[in-house]
Amino acid sequence: MPDLHLVNIAAVNGCALVTFDARIRQLLRPDERHLVKLWS
After folding, report:
1. Mind listing the pLDDT tens digit of every residue in the chain (40 residues)?
2. Between 20 and 30 A from 38 (CA), which of 1, 11, 23, 32?
C-alpha cells in the first residue's frame, strides 16, 4: 500500500502544476501555445 502522505503530496503538486500551466497558457499569445504543448 502506498504511503498516503506521499500520495497527497503528489495530488497537491499535480493540481498546482495544472493551475500553473493554465495560467501560463492564458498569458501566452495563441501562436505561442503550441510551444507549451511541446513541453508537456
Report:
1. 567 777 677 777 777 776 777 777 777 767 666 666 665 5
2. 11
28: CB partners within 8 A, 6+ apart:
35, 36
> Which distant-in-sequence residues (6+ apart) come within 8 Å of 40 by Cβ?
21
Are the beta carbons of 21 and 36 closer than 8 angstroms? yes
pTM of the model: 0.29
Dihedral sign, CA of 31, 36, 39, 40? negative
Distance CA 4, CA 32 (A): 38
